[in-house]
Amino acid sequence: MQFTSFLDQGQLTVALTGEIDHHCAKSYIQAIAAKIEAYAPATCVLDFQEVTFVDSSGIAVVINALRCMTRIGGQLLLTGIGNQPMRVFRTSGIDKLVEIKEAVS
After folding, report:
1. Which of 42, 56, 57, 105 could potentially form a cystine with 10 if both were Cys, beta carbons 3.0 to 4.6 Å apart?
2. What is the pLDDT of residue 103?
């Protein structure tokens, strides 16, 4: 699990990398929740630009980030989503719960 994050004017951006599956999902969930708790951003952006694979564990990562942001009255956005992760998110209905910007083809 590798990711970078930065806070800019109340927006926390978390850039995820690689494959998001059951091997790393719990670590991502905990790390993202800790960042949200520490910074209490108005908006959290999960950047999937460098993500090559997502399974149901990736859905859990998004849902947990959404819960954290809802708890503090903030907004969650997803960006940079490639074809495979987008198929998973559409099939699961995540695209109806979370705003998706700048999807890549």
Report:
1. 42
2. 55
Look up the pTM and report it: 0.94
Q: H or E stretch including 89?
A: helix 83-92
d(CA 53, CA 38): 28
Total number of residues shown for the chain: 105
Which domains are delineated in the chain?
12-101 (3.30.750.24)
Residue 96 tokens, joined: 């109806």
pLDDT tens across 67-86, in order?
999 999 999 999 999 999 99
101 forms bridges with which residues in the sheet? 79
Six-digit token string for 47: 């950047």
